[in-house]
Amino acid sequence: MSKAIKGAVEGNVVVPEESAILPEGAEVTINLPSNLRLLRHAGVWRNIEGLDELVEEIYRTRAISG
């Protein structure tokens, strides 16, 4: 049975609002709010060669003129 525990992020660490006893090495899942889900992909785009050109092409080819 799963249990939801709310918490806050402090210094890139999730600090739970209430304490929970978890065995060492226990796997947990963190469900991010929908408005934060893109943050996990932010690092993927870092230091990609030609990123500006890629973004420009995406806007040019996928934008709908009004």
What's the end-to-end separation, in Å?
Answer: 51 Å
Shape: elongated
Radius of gyration: 19 Å
**What ranges have pLDDT less than 50 throughout 5 or more consecutive residues?**
none
Count of separate DSSP helical elements = 1
Structural class: alpha+beta
Strand fraction band?
5-15%
Order of secondary-structure elements: EEH
Overall residue-averaged pLDDT value:
76
| Sequence of strands across the biggest β-sheet | 1-2
How can the largest sheet be summarized? 2 strands, antiparallel
- By DSSP, the count of extended strands is 2
Explain this structure to me?
With 66 residues, the chain is α+β, with helices and mostly antiparallel strands. Helix content is 18%, strand content 12%. It contains one helix and two strands. The protein has one helix at 51-62, and strands at residues 7-10, 13-16. Strands 1-2 form a two-stranded antiparallel ribbon. A hairpin with a 2-residue loop joins strand 1 (7-10) and strand 2. The radius of gyration is 19 Å and the shape is elongated. It starts with 6 loop residues before the first strand and ends with a helix. The model has no long low-confidence stretch (mean pLDDT 76).
Keywords:
single chain; 66 residues; alpha+beta; two-stranded antiparallel sheet; 1 helix; 2 strands; elongated
SSE diagram, text form:
Elements: E1 7-10, E2 13-16, H1 51-62
Antiparallel strand pairs: 1-2
Task: Briefly characterize the structure.
With 66 residues, this protein is of the alpha+beta class.
